[in-house]
Design goal:
By secondary structure, the chain is α/β, with parallel strands linked by helices. The chain has a single domain, classed as Alpha-Beta Barrel (TIM Barrel), CATH 3.20.20.70. The chain contains 13 helices and 15 strands. It has a 6-stranded parallel sheet. A 3-stranded antiparallel sheet has the order 9-13-12, with no helix packed on it. A two-stranded antiparallel ribbon has the order 1-2. Helix 7 links the parallel strand 7 and strand 8. Helix 2 packs across helix 4 and helix 4 packs parallel to helix 5. The protein is globular and about 65 Å long. The structure holds flavin mononucleotide (FMN). This is NAD(P)H-dependent flavin oxidoreductase YrpB (Nitropropane dioxygenase family). It comes from Sulfuritortus calidifontis. InterPro entries: Aldolase_TIM, NMO. GO terms for molecular function: dioxygenase activity; nitronate monooxygenase activity. Keywords: Dioxygenase, Flavoprotein, FMN, Oxidoreductase.
Length: about 425
């Protein structure tokens, strides 16, 4: 019986352990977590979601305060179209986050940045262009374009000197999405260097419908993508993601032609992960019934989360003057509408509850939106229960090596 370590992910002459830790926004996949993946010979991700907040936390910059101060006059205004990001600050925050991470990198692995294109930031094109260019400037090994895949994103950086040398990949949830992307980008003569196929059991946002996500199956979509690339004679590594919980699950995909696997949920309970330990204990405690896919994300994509997380039903005033990452090109966010609808329906109420949407920026910033993968309820089987009833937090190295070397569906418990 084989283990993951019997396989290698090949990028040209470079060989890596075929384990990629997926991007988890707002600094859940921290630099520390990505650095461990790289040190151990795999691929780690940082994320550029809410980059100003991440920079303020890591480097004591004051970007969020400055923006909030500039737009303070607009806080009670339902119209957020005036609230713009300062492109210079986005660039500086990205350079700091990426640059310092890359300086600290050790080992043979690589570090990529996950760019969620659905973070439209009230100027989708301009802000994405700055985010991508600054990450390349600061030396990131690669970029993974995720949620909201805009077919024109490669073109935004086609003149960047690193456009052909950095690893650029995309996340898709169907063969159709991949075909559209390839068709749209044919003129650039620059194929993606890797394709992450994300299935319906993943954490974060899902690329499926709210009502029918459960009908899809990662192995089937992955096989379709691999067969299509073969037929087109395109040699691009395919990386399935979503519900790959053990090394043996991963081997199943690698034996069927995948080049690597992308995993995340198991690492949400690592010391190096950005989630506070209190939240990590909630992940450990969760039962299968506690995990839901709902429509509360203003992005319009279904999202998986723990149903007891504080983000659901909270009715806070929209915080777009400080954050505003989900504002579309016209300054709209679905949460603003939902919030003001409830305010109008409950005149004079001290507390407002909004159940159909959530202020995702604020709650992700505060680690109050407990997004997670489908198999979160199995995390308790990956560690030991301590005398006080809590669960032992793991090291990223322990989890990584368990994926790399385990066989027979086994999961190694920590010392
Ligand atoms: C807590 C959490 C946050 C996530 N955030 C993002 C994100 O910001 N962007 C993204 O592309 N994927 C995100 N994902 C998806 C992962 O990168 C990954 O593809 C997927 O969860 C892998 O499946 P697994 O969690 O079952 O291992 C997130 C996953 C989790 C568990």
């Amino acid at each position: 019986m084989k283990c993951v370590d019997d396989f290698r992910l090949r990028f040209g002459k470079r060989e890596l352990v075929p384990i990629m830790i997926g991007g988890m926004g707002v600094d859940i996949s921290t630099a520390e977590l990505a650095l461990e993946a790289a040190r151990l010979g795999g691929v780690g991700h940082i994320s550029d979601a809410m980059i100003s907040t991440v920079s303020d936390r890591r480097f004591k910059t004051g970007f969020v305060k400055e923006k909030q101060k500039q737009y303070k006059y607009n806080v009670a205004n339902i119209d957020k179209s005036a609230v713009k990001f300062d492109l210079g600050q986005i660039e500086e925050a990205t350079r700091l986050h990426v640059g310092r991470t890359m300086e600290a990198k050790r080992g043979e692995g690589m570090i990529f940045i996950n760019c969620m294109e659905k973070l439209t930031m009230n100027a989708p094109r301009e802000t994405l262009q700055v985010r991508l260019s600054a990450a390349l400037d600061a030396g990131i090994d690669g970029i993974t374009l995720s949620a909201g895949l805009h077919l024109g994103s490669f073109a935004l950086i086609e003149d960047h000197p690193r456009f052909r040398d950095a690893k650029l990949g995309i996340i898709v949830s169907s063969l159709r999405a991949l075909q559209l992307f390839l068709r749209k980008n044919a003129r650039l003569k620059r194929l993606p260097d890797f394709i992450v196929v994300e299935g319906p059991l993943a954490g974060g946002h899902l690329g499926f419908g709210l009502d029918d996500w459960w009908k899809y199956d990662l192995a089937t979509i992955t096989a379709e993508v691999i067969a299509y690339l073969k037929q087109e004679q395109l040699d691009i590594p395919v990386i399935p993601a979503g519900g790959i919980f053990t090394g043996s699950d991963a081997v199943g995909f690698l034996e069927n032609g995948a080049a690597c696997v992308q995993v995340a949920t198991r690492f949400t309970v690592a010391q190096e992960c950005g989630l506070p330990e209190k939240v990590q204990q909630e992940y450990f405690k969760a039962s299968e019934d506690d995990i839901v896919v709902n429509g509360v994300s203003p992005t319009g994509y279904p999202m998986r989360m723990l149903k007891n997380c504080p983000a659901i039903g909270a009715g806070i005033r929209p915080n777009c003057e400080a954050y505003g990452y989900l504002l579309d090109a016209n300054g709209h966010c679905a949460y603003i509408d939902a919030y003001y609808r409830e305010v109008a329906a409950h005149p004079g109420a001290k507390e407002i509850h909004v159940y159909d949407k959530t202020c995702l920026c604020t709650h992700m910033r505060n680690f109050d939106c407990w997004t997670c993968g489908h198999y979160t309820y199995r995390l308790k089987d990956t560690t030991r229960k301590l005398a006080d009833g809590s669960y032992q937090i793991l090291t990223a190295e322990h989890i990584f090596k368990d994926y790399q070397f385990s066989k027979d569906g086994k999961i190694a418990l920590p010392e």
